[in-house]
Write a structure and sequence with these properties.
The protein is an alpha+beta fold. The protein contains 3 helices and 3 strands, in the order H-E-H-E-E-H.
């Protein structure tokens, strides 16, 4: 099965919960307080960023083939909406 054939929500949950599971297996860690860099800035990447923020992670960078955006204090939902608005143009 290819990721392209899955719904973005399915891919998002799979990626984030896989990361959460790996951290949990490494001494009981979680995404809480972790800094996250996401390769991509499209629909799936933004959904992954939202889920990471919901789980307490600090998303500090989004990047794609056109460049990158760094927010050292971490993106919030409003800033992600700004990225989404730019990508729609």
């Amino acid at each position: 099965m290819k990721f392209a054939t899955l719904k973005p929500d399915t891919v998002t949950l799979t990626l984030v919960f896989f990361a959460q599971h790996c951290l949990n297996g490494n001494g009981g860690q979680s995404l809480e307080g972790k800094k996250v860099v996401i390769s991509g800035s499209g629909q799936v990447a933004l959904a992954v960023a939202e889920k990471c923020i919901e789980l307490g992670a600090k998303v500090i960078c989004l990047c794609d083939s056109t460049g990158y955006v760094v927010e050292e204090e971490g993106f919030d939902m409003d800033k992600l909406e700004g990225i989404r608005a730019i990508k729609v143009r």
